[in-house]
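Input/output pair, single chain:
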Amino acid sequence: MENGKACCNCSHHKIVPCCITLIGLAFLLLQLNIFLTAYVVGIIWPVLLIVIGLVKMRGGNCKCC
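Output:
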């Protein structure tokens, strides 16, 4: 327990913060004039979907939710 709330260490609860971080990184790179080409984005998003799927499969059923 942390601050009176249950703390979950399940790996699938980390997907949303990781996605938000990646979106923030993309906006930061845009502001720094470091452009992501369509080719790079075309490679990154399927890899992210694969990773998310693998994490979901590995996690199994969450007992905390």
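The mean pLDDT is 74. The chain has two helices and no strands.
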